[in-house]
């Protein structure tokens, strides 16, 4: 009989969401590289537009509304998926040898979700998007490596 240990409990809980973590990692990295510069351009338009006047801004972004709606939809989906993953990750206590990687993943995911939610508010209201959170901030410098380490740990006996 196998006696449950914190390591086994962690592995079993994390094994259930491992593919979700991998998918979220890929989707958010792709989102950042695909839409980052376009979101930066919209940010500039929103800043200028809010200084010049809402009428000008509304006219300027009218042609971009399908793009804006698409980005809002993607960010909303990623935010919900990320929160679901975090709900599980926050319920388990990682063993000492993997705790640092676990913490990096949680902190980066929290930062990316907060950044997406600020962007959603900005895009929905055509206002400059918040800058309190960063999609690629220091919390995420080792995100990819931490995901690999967790997945290796979970998948190896």
Summarize the structure.
The chain has 157 residues and is mainly alpha-helical.
How large is the count of helical segments? 5
Helix content: over 70%
**H/E element sequence:** HHHHH
Task: Please provide the count of β strands.
Answer: 0
Strand content: under 5%
- Helix vs. strand class: mainly alpha
Q: Please tell me the overall pLDDT.
A: 88
Roughly how many Å is the radius of gyration? Answer: 19 Å
How far apart lie the N and C ends? 16 Å
The major pleated sheet works out as: none
Shape: elongated
Describe this structure in words.
The chain has 157 residues and is mostly helical. 78% of the residues lie in helices and 0% in strands. It is built from five helices and no strands. It has helices spanning 6-52, 54-61, 65-89, 96-125, 143-155. Helix 1 (6-52) packs across helix 2, helix 1 runs antiparallel to helix 3 (65-89) and helix 3 runs antiparallel to helix 4. The longest helix has 47 residues, at 6-52. It is elongated. The two termini are 16 Å apart.
Can you give keywords for this protein?
157 residues, mainly alpha, 78% helix, 0% strand, elongated
């Amino acid at each position: 009989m196998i006696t449950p240990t914190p390591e086994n409990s962690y592995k079993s809980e994390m094994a259930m969401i491992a593919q979700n973590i991998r998918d979220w990692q890929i989707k958010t990295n792709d989102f950042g590289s695909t839409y980052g510069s376009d979101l930066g351009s919209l940010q500039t338009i929103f800043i200028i537009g809010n200084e010049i006047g809402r009428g000008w801004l509304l006219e300027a972004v009218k042609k971009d509304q399908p793009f804006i709606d698409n980005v809002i939809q993607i960010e909303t989906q990623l935010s919900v998926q990320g929160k679901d993953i975090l709900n599980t990750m926050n319920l388990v206590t990682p063993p000492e040898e993997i705790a640092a990687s676990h913490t990096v993943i949680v902190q980066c995911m929290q930062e990316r979700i907060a950044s997406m939610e600020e962007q959603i508010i900005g895009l929905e209201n055509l206002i400059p998007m918040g800058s309190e959170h960063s999609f690629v901030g220091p919390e995420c410098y080792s995100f990819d490596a931490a995901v690999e380490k967790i997945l290796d740990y979970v998948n190896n006996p």
